[in-house]
Write a structure and sequence with these properties.
Strand order of the largest sheet: 3-2-1-4
Distance between the termini: 73 Å
CATH class of the largest domain: Mainly Alpha
Strand content: 5-15%
Order of helices and strands: HHHHHHHEEHEE
Structural class: alpha+beta
Number of strands: 4
């Protein structure tokens, strides 16, 4: 689905994700019912968590889109990280449940009932997940939404699992090795555990206000440098990204004789440049006179030499 066809609201996208998850769960549960495969049952169990996670994501995005109020003066953006952490926790728990089913299937193997019918239904669910997972990932990155990106990674992890299961379960009747079913379920458990850990790690980093990657920091510095003409330097630059909002503060050194109005114009120009390229940005600039220059950070032009001539 092209991004232009998606709703403007992230909350509406999360609602579509919930509907897609319910459709995929229906297909995968039907695949498990007709086949009796432990591996396909594990895949259906993992999809139940997708539905629960989609409900949590819908709630979180609804909170995150609320405007700032007197109790949350910086907005509600971190609600998305809470949703992603909860999703990662559920995914990890699901991995252990699937692992238990895999162990039981290994100890008490049984033949699948109708593997080809089950595989057809599972393959259909995998194709639905592929299309929607790519759409969510693109939308999340374009809109800088941790909840949508986490959901997209989670859905795409189902795709690779689905492909492996279709191939693996197809080999069971061909090889006659019943324990392959439990082995595939174990593979599903390990993959789910990996995805859950990645989602939790990235979300916790966001909650801890981890600095963005080096490329983003370089982009911010380039924007300040391109729009700070008239100032001397910018130092002590600090930034964090929370959902779709970039928080940035730094010290801007200007000549001591510069008027407040002119210094304010420079700040306005820098803020406009940041918002034009970074999207929603909350900028705090502390203006300082040239005697407080540190000669570090972004230096626009050298401080004039005021020492007496010898």
């Amino acid at each position: 689905m092209p991004l232009s066809a998606l709703p403007d609201s992230n909350k509406s996208i999360a609602l579509l994700s919930l509907l897609v998850s319910v459709l995929v769960l229906t297909l995968k549960y039907a695949a498990y019912t007709v086949s009796g495969s432990v591996a396909l049952g594990a895949d259906a169990m993992e999809t139940i968590i997708n539905v629960v996670s989609a409900i949590g994501g819908l709630w979180a995005l609804g909170i995150a889109e609320r405007p700032a109020d007197h109790n949350h003066t910086y907005g509600h953006y971190k609600a998305e990280y809470l949703s992603a952490v909860a999703e990662g926790t559920l995914v990890v728990l699901t991995a252990f449940l699937i692992g238990r089913e895999a162990i039981e299937g290994w100890l008490s193997p049984h033949r699948t009932l109708a593997p080809w019918a089950g595989l057809s239904l599972n393959a259909a669910a995998t194709l639905v997940n592929l299309g929607w997972g790519l759409t969510m990932l693109q939308a999340g990155r374009a809109r800088r939404s941790p909840a949508l990106v986490a959901g997209g990674h989670h859905v795409l992890s189902d795709v690779w699992t689905g492909v492996a299961l279709v191939v693996g379960v197809a080999l069971i009747p061909l090889t006659g090795w019943a324990r392959l079913d439990a082995l595939l379920a174990g593979f599903v458990a390990l993959n789910v555990l990996r995805v859950g850990w990645e989602v939790m790690r990235e979300s916790i980093a966001g909650l801890m206000d981890q600095a963005p990657d080096g490329a983003t920091l370089d982009q911010i510095r380039d924007i300040i440098a391109a729009n700070g003409q008239g100032a001397i330097e910018a130092h002590d630059i600090r930034t964090r990204i929370v959902g779709a909002m970039t928080f940035l503060d730094f010290h801007l050194v200007v000549p001591g004789s510069m008027s407040v109005e002119k210094a304010h114009d420079i700040c306005d120009r820098i803020e406009a440049g940041l918002r034009a390229q970074m999207g929603s940005t909350l900028v705090h600039i502390h203006v300082e006179p040239d005697r407080l220059a540190k000669h570090e950070g972004i230096v626009f032009w050298p401080r004039p030499d005021t020492s007496p001539v010898k």
